[in-house]
Amino acid sequence: MTTWILLSLFLIGVVITEHPPLIKSDKLIEYAPQASTEPTLGDQSNENLENNVTRLLDKLIASHDRRIRPNYGGPPIEVNITAHVTTISAVSEVSMDYTLDLYLRQIWKDPRLAWESDVEDSLTIGIDMVKTIWTPDTFFPNEKKSFFHEATSHNSFLRIDSHGNVLRSIRLTVTANCPMSLHTFPLDRQECALEVESYGYSTKDIIYHWHGANAVTIDENVHLAHFTIGEHYHIERTISLSTGNYSRLTAYFMFKRNIGFYLIQIYFPSSLIVVISWVSFWLNREAVQARVAIGVTTVLTMTTLMTSTNASLPKVSYVKSLDVFLGVCFFIVFASLLEYAAIGYLMKRNRSVPAASPVQYYETGDGVLKREASRKKSRNRRDSSMKNYQNNNIHHRPSDGHVDQRIPLLSMVPMPPIPFKPQNGAWGKVRPAQVDLFSRFAFPIFFVIFHIIYWTYYINQ
Ligand SMILES: *[C@@H]1O[C@H](CO)[C@@H](O)[C@H](O)[C@H]1NC(C)=O
Ligand SMILES: *[C@@H]1O[C@H](CO)[C@@H](O)[C@H](O)[C@H]1NC(C)=O
Ligand SMILES: *[C@@H]1O[C@H](CO)[C@@H](O)[C@H](O)[C@H]1NC(C)=O
Questions:
Q1: Which among 50, 51, 56, 118 is the best mutation to test ligand 1's pocket, defined by most ligand atoms within 8 Å of the CB?
Q2: Is the beta carbon of 25 within 6 A of some atom in ligand 1?
Q3: Does the keyword Zinc-finger apply (predicted)?
Q4: Per-residue pLDDT tens digits for 95-116
Q5: Is there a contact between 152 and 167 (Cβ–Cβ < 8 Å)?
């Protein structure tokens, strides 16, 4: 029994000791509303202000027809625009467009929304109010697609001051068309425009203006990986369409392409491939496999580099400056492969032309071995010489065993000249060694001169 009593007492003790924190937290929760309900005087004035503003807005909207522009029948309404660019992304030469994130602010004066300034000087109102007042039907003529930002609510606001000046700010992402000329790619700079116009109201109803000299600003944190953002400027103009004349604003953004990526990925590797192809000139002329392998490999590597480079670019039908560079590199690599073909031809020809005395005598009898050696050397020569023997009506005696064709004893016949046509011009005397020596210097000099001309021409463009 006593154990039960002790146990129940203990449990009660636990319950009692457990309770205080709960009570404390309850008190804490109760504390906040109590604190806020304490000042009653200020709350009343707040309520008064709220009521006054509500009444004011109701009054403004009640007399407002949102279907009709301000100053209807009078002079056109001026709509001022400012744009603050917060992000520029995806300047794409493949799709010829670029994407901007911007705050578009439109400022206009609607006298119907003016009020006596005893309540507030300016009111920032929820975007729902937009549905009840007139707003300009601004659009971007060169836009491809664009969207509002809706997180967490529609990213826009409306501010009205007591004189009826309305400021509407919207956060937008706009992908705009930007035709690019890639003639000097990748040393090019592109100019992309963002155009602003009214869709329906002609110059009789709306005139757009940039709001001051600094109407277009770019956030200083805007950076692009492959472009440097240059200057930007903006113009105002009127364009004539079949439906009337419209006021159009244009902001231009300059993008200067960063060459670094292309230097590392294309210019440097392709120059190295060209240099590798020159290794062939320093190798032994007899090293056929090594020289052909270098030639073919460098040609194939250049082909791959050209194909992969152009795969990420639009299929333009004109020659870009990158194409010029890669084309010349390919030409040099190809020429060094052809150089070996020329060497091979010269070597073959020189082998078939005996460099010794112009008149040779066939030895007879004992000289059979010598003749055998020379026969091995060139089959063509033997054939031609044999033909001539036959023409000269010299008959061979049948051989007796070891040697097939035995030349008659004591017949010392001068060897007929080989019907070899000497090449016209310098080729007749050129030796393969000279070609290699010439190439060793001519190819690098040509490449260096090409580099100098290429860079001076395209950098000055
Ligand atoms: C609200 O309007 C009334 C008159 O309509 C004025 O007396 C009062 O001071 C206004 N309240 C505030 C907070 O402006
Ligand atoms: C619009 O901007 C021009 C200057 O560009 C200025 O003269 C004019 O007062 C502005 N209009 C409004 C309604 O702010
Ligand atoms: C548009 O402007 C031109 C002059 O710039 C004028 O000749 C033409 O009549 C105007 N068109 C309309 C519809 O107002």
A1: 118
A2: no
A3: no
A4: 999 999 999 999 999 998 888 7
A5: no
> In the chain, what are the domain boundaries?
58-258, 261-352+429-459, 355-391+403-419
* pTM: predicted TM-score of the whole model, two decimal places: 0.72
pLDDT computed for residue 424 by the predictor: 52
Cβ of residue 257 lying under 6 Å from some atom of ligand 2 = no
Ligand 3 center–CA 240 separation, angstroms: 7
Per-residue pLDDT at 407: 52
Give the distance (Å) from ligand 3 centre to CA of residue 242: 10
Give the ligand with the smallest distance to the CA of 77.
2
Q: Which CATH architecture has domain 58-258?
A: Distorted Sandwich (2.70)
Could you say which of 2.40.30.10, 3.40.50.1000, 1.20.58.390, 1.20.1250.20 is the CATH number of the domain covering 261-352+429-459? 1.20.58.390
- Does pLDDT of 55 surpass 90? no
Please tell me if the CB atom of residue 49 comes closer than 6 angstroms to any atom of ligand 1.
yes
Does the C-beta of 54 come closer than 6 Å to ligand 1? no
Residue of the nearest CA to atom 8 in ligand 1?
48
User: What is the per-residue pLDDT across 412-425, written as a single tens digit (0 to 9) for each?
Assistant: 555 555 555 555 55
Say which residue, 401 or 337, is predicted with more confidence.
337
